[in-house]
TrEMBL record:
Keywords, ordered alphabetically: Apoplast, Secreted, Signal
Family: Belongs to the plant dirigent protein family.
Organism whose genome encodes this protein: Oryza glaberrima (African rice)
PANTHER family with a match to the protein in the record: NUCLEOPORIN-RELATED
GO cellular component, one term: apoplast
The protein's assembly and partners: Homodimer.
Taxonomic superkingdom: Eukaryota
Name of the protein in question: Dirigent protein
Signal sequence interval, chain numbering: 1-21
Compartmental location: Secreted, Extracellular space, Apoplast
Pfam families tied to this protein: Dirigent
Length: 184
């Protein structure tokens, strides 16, 4: 019993020393001073998804295998959507939403959305927040997890809430309000 306690103590000491050395050498986990903050960073913007017209920001790259599917199950879109400060497409640009969304629900219209929120203005210019999750567009508020990021958002975690601000009569072009809460 005493021998096991000594061995366990030595292992814990070695683990603690290795973790400290790795962090100091630059090879272990590093975190900005905001990483231990109790309050997340809040980022607000409007997402402009335009499928129609001569310059779409989202394009269909895979058609649904079953053309009669009420949810277009299997359809894949690639997007490079502008993000703006306000709902007007001419308001100040703050970034781009780059990624894809695919129809992944056979019962109701819902997408698996994978996107990088590439910020191009303000304090976080050049940083990226990565979001991956389910987006059922008929829900008034959709919540998707933040799964990572780069630059100021390394080790990011949090969530994004999406709320449809405008949907055209054909249900194709949309303006979506986003509130993103990120710990980093």
């Amino acid at each position: 019993m005493a021998k096991e306690i000594v061995v366990m103590s030595v292992l814990l000491f070695v683990l603690a020393a290795t973790t400290k050395a790795d962090t100091q050498s630059g090879y272990g986990p590093r975190c900005s001073s905001l990483c231990n903050s109790s309050a997340p960073t809040h980022i607000h913007f409007y997402f402009h998804d335009k499928i129609t017209g001569p310059s779409p920001s989202a394009v269909q790259v895979v058609s649904p295998p079953n053309k009669t599917s009420p949810t277009s199950f299997g359809t894949v879109y690639v997007m490079d959507d502008p993000l703006t400060e306000g709902p007007d497409p001419r308001s100040k640009p703050v970034g781009r939403a780059q990624g894809m969304y695919l129809s992944s629900d056979q019962v109701r219209i819902g997408f698996l959305q994978a996107m990088n929120i590439v910020l191009t203005a303000g304090l976080y210019n050049g940083s990226v927040i990565t979001v991956l999750g389910s987006n059922h567009i008929s829900d008034s508020i959709r919540e998707m997890p933040v799964v990572g990021g780069t630059s100021a958002f390394r080790f990011a975690r949090g969530y994004a809430q999406a709320r449809t601000y405008f949907l055209d009569s054909n249900g194709l072009d949309a303006i979506v309000e986003y509130n993103v809460y990120v710990f980093h």
